[in-house]
Automatic annotation (TrEMBL):
Region called Disordered, residue ranges: 185-207
InterPro entries named among the record's database cross-references: CAT-like_dom_sf (IPR023213), Condensation_dom (IPR001242)
Signal sequence extent: none
Residue stretches in coiled coil: none
Domain Condensation: 64-235
A Pfam family per the record: Condensation
Biased composition (Polar residues): 186-198
Name recorded for this polypeptide: Condensation domain-containing protein
Length: 460
């Protein structure tokens, strides 16, 4: 989720270099399911959900080199050339251009200014400036020079361009351009995705997914009226924890279980304990659909929300992990769906059953270091006990909405960083902090138990 602050006064580029490009795959058509899902998020959150960031440029790279990189990316990735069109009834369409011109901004760091801080401000300005879905290319790129030499590059794109894993693929390919140029792309681009999704095979997939979603949505709790509070309604905070990182590492190794499943089980148990009504925990994972045919190496938005109903009340951790794993597997399987169809079923159920469509925890596991396997040896019980407890810091309060209760999970060496987003009228900040600490405490407790049992079963 982006920050919304704008540096003052606005930074002005020294020059803007026109970069002409062309590319294959031009055409106009419906949004793909992944694009439509993120578009619904954009409309709900009143944000173009910019993604990207800034980093040092390769040593010796010139402005001309970076312009060539931008031209290459515009040619290779049709999503970089995609803008929106709207039908008479307001439905969005994707329009992929076959040619055009995009600007590469060049900024010069003022004398005495810190180059990294200046670049961070450029990046923040790109994110904060409103985006025109119809007229503007969905990529903003700026080179920051120090004494006339390129030092940093900021690249910010609209989330319609790609999901996080597609962004990582793009960065790897651009980085390898001069040493190991990537071969032709083989993945289905969004226009082709939309064509398949409208085919009989695609409709069959969507209909099966819709049956799963309807079954899960029927288990949502009834609507509870929100309690208004003074000040900005939507808050964001970070919870950085070495203890949770080590505990998750230990449990995943002892049980030989996927690390996301371990985390989701901690979360499901903590949510169930906090609500105290015995209902299943509702978790809505962001699912990377790249395991599906044709989506593995495409730079596009193919991740979609799933829905997981984990009935774990009163269970041991091991049994809760099994139940959560089954529920998560179904969520991943049926996360490839038509968001418009799910929205229609949701509206019907809400009207007839009074279910709370915003119930649950949105869960986005974005880790790249420990997602598949933690680095290093399994922590000892002593190391788990000694790990520093998490620190919770509220960082942003705003009126534009987030998802009702949402978590992004990132890692750095030796710790997890959870970014929590909450609608404080539904889940007040104190309750969010309590939930974060309950997840951590449960993780440490279960890790120590698992390590003790593991040690007891080892042969001398």
């Amino acid at each position: 989720m982006p920050d919304t602050f704008l540096p003052a006064p606005p930074l002005v580029a020294t020059t803007r270099i026109p970069v002409r490009f062309d590319g294959e795959g031009a055409g106009t058509g419906p949004l793909s399911w992944g694009q439509l899902g993120i578009w619904q998020d954009m409309v709900r959150q009143r944000s173009w959900l910019p993604i990207g960031g800034w980093a040092p440029v390769a040593e010796g790279a010139t402005v001309e080199d970076l312009a060539d990189d931008l031209r290459w990316a515009m040619r290779r990735y049709p999503t970089f050339r995609t803008r929106l069109r709207f039908t008479d009834d307001g439905a969005p369409l994707q329009a992929v251009a076959g040619w055009g011109t995009i600007g590469l901004d060049v900024f010069d760091v003022p004398p005495g200014a810190d180059p990294a801080a200046f670049t961070a401000s450029v990046d923040a300005q790109y994110r904060a400036r409103p985006y025109d879905f119809v007229e503007e290319w969905p990529v903003r790129m700026g080179v920051v020079r120090v004494d006339g030499v390129p030092a940093y590059l900021s690249t910010v794109t609209c989330h319609l361009v790609t999901d996080g894993f597609g962004g990582l693929l793009m960065l790897r390919e651009v980085a390898a351009l001069r040493t190991d140029p990537p071969g032709p792309t083989s993945g289905l681009q969004p226009l082709a995705q939309a064509q398949w999704q409208a085919s009989p095979e695609g409709r069959k997939q969507s209909e099966k997914a819709l049956r799963h979603w309807e079954k899960m949505l029927r288990q949502l709790p009834p609507v509870t009226p929100p309690a208004s509070r003074p000040g900005p309604r939507f808050h964001r905070g970070t919870f950085v924890s070495a203890a949770l990182y080590r505990a998750t590492h230990a449990v995943s190794v002892v049980f030989d279980i996927d690390t996301s499943q371990v985390l989701m089980t901690f979360l499901a148990l903590a949510v169930t304990a906090q609500t105290g009504d015995g209902r299943p925990a509702i978790i809505r994972p962001m699912v990377d659909n790249r395991f599906r045919r044709g989506l593995g190496d495409v730079v596009a938005m193919v991740a979609q929300r799933g829905i997981c109903v984990a009935d774990v009340a009163g269970l041991s951790y091991e049994e809760a992990m099994r139940r959560t794993g089954i529920a998560a597997m179904l969520a991943y399987k049926w996360a490839y769906h038509d968001p418009a169809a799910v929205a229609a079923v949701s509206a019907t159920l809400s009207a007839s059953l009074d279910v709370d469509l915003d119930a649950g925890v949105w869960f986005n596991d974005r880790r790249t270091i420990s997602r598949q396997m933690f680095p290093g040896s399994v922590p000892t019980a002593e190391q788990v006990r000694d790990a520093a407890p998490g620190v919770f810091t509220w960082t942003v309060a705003q009126d534009d909405p987030y998802d009702p209760l949402s978590i992004d999970v990132d890692d750095s060496p030796g710790e997890f960083q959870f970014t929590w987003f909450t609608d404080t009228w539904r889940t007040p900040p104190a309750r969010v902090e309590a939930l974060a600490r309950a997840v951590e405490a449960l993780a440490v407790q279960e890790a120590l138990t698992a390590l003790e049992n593991f040690a007891g079963t080892e042969t001398p």
